[in-house]
Amino acid sequence: MAEIAAHLERDGFSTFLPHRDGLEFAKLKPALHARGLGEREASLVLARAVFSLDTFELLRKADAVVVNLNGRVPDEGAVVEAALAWHSGKALVLYKHDARSKLSGEDNPMVTGLGRFSVCAHIAELPAAIRAELARPRGADAAGTVALGERVAAFRAAHSDEAAIADFLIASAGRATPVSA
Question: What is the pTM of this model?
Answer without folding.
Answer: 0.83
